[in-house]
C-alpha cells in the first residue's frame, strides 16, 4: 500500500460515490452559511440600465420552507464589529449601529443621524420616526410619497422595488430606488430597510451611493454589515 508521502503519483481517482458525497457536503456547508449570514437582496436596477456585478436583481419573494436569504442574524452587543468599523451609540434614537471608522457625521437630531464616507460617494442614515405610521408598510408608503415630490427630495425618475425581509428578528421591508438628483444626471441607488420598533416607531436604515459598478459592490457590503450590527430599542425595557 502506498504511503501518504509518495507524491502525486500515489493519488488514486475518486469514485463516483465519493465525488457525490463531497458535492453533498459542500452544498450543506454553503446552505448553513447562507442561513447564518444571509446577505440582503439589493439588486433591481432600473429598466434599461445593466445590473452591476454583485447586485443581481431580486425576484419577488415567495413563501417557501427554505431559509430567507435576505434575513440578517440577530444583532447583539457581544458581536464584534469588523476590523475598520466602529459601533456608534445614538441615545435619542434608542439604537446602536456600526459604520466604517473614517466616516463622518453630517447631521443629527432626535429622530435621525446622517453620515458620509470621506470621498462622499456613500451616505448612511438611521431614522426612528412615527410620522407615517407604526408599521414598515405605512412607513415605506409615506417615505415614497415624499421621495416622489422633487420639490422636497430633489430626486427624479425613481424606479422602485420593495421586498419582504427580516431585520432584528422581525418582519421588515427592503426598499430599493434607482434615481438621479434633479440637478444631476449621474445615476444613484438607495437601499433601505424598515423595521418596526416599540412605542409605535419605525426604524429606517438607509445607504445611498453613486451607481457605478464599484459603488454598488461597496454599497452591498456596507448595507449587509450595517444591518447585521444594528441594535434597536436599546433603552426600552
Q: Concise description?
A:
The chain contains 4 helices and 10 strands. It is of the alpha+beta class and 237 residues long.
Describe this structure in words.
The chain has 237 residues and is an alpha+beta fold. The protein has one domain (36-62, 69-232): Protein Transport Mog1p, Chain A, CATH 3.40.1000. The protein has four helices and ten strands. A seven-stranded antiparallel sheet has the order 3-4-5-9-8-7-6, with helices on both faces. The chain has a three-stranded antiparallel sheet with strand order 1-2-10. A hairpin with a 5-residue loop joins β4 (112-116) and β5. The protein is globular and about 45 Å long. The model is unreliable at 1-16 and 22-71 (pLDDT under 50).
Number of strands: 10
What is the succession of H and E elements? Answer: HEEEEEHHEEEEHE
CATH architecture: 3-Layer(aba) Sandwich
Class inferred from helices and paired strands: alpha+beta
Within CATH, the superfamily carries the name Mog1/PsbP, alpha/beta/alpha sandwich
Number of domains: 1
Q: Specify the biggest β-sheet.
A: 7 strands, antiparallel
Topology of helices and strands:
Blueprint: H1 16-36, E1 85-90, E2 95-100, E3 104-108, E4 112-116, E5 122-129, H2 136-147, H3 150-153, E6 155-167, E7 170-181, E8 188-196, E9 202-210, H4 213-228, E10 231-232
Feature tags:
single chain; 237 residues; alpha+beta; Protein Transport Mog1p, Chain A; seven-stranded antiparallel sheet; three-stranded antiparallel sheet; 4 helices; 10 strands; disordered N terminus
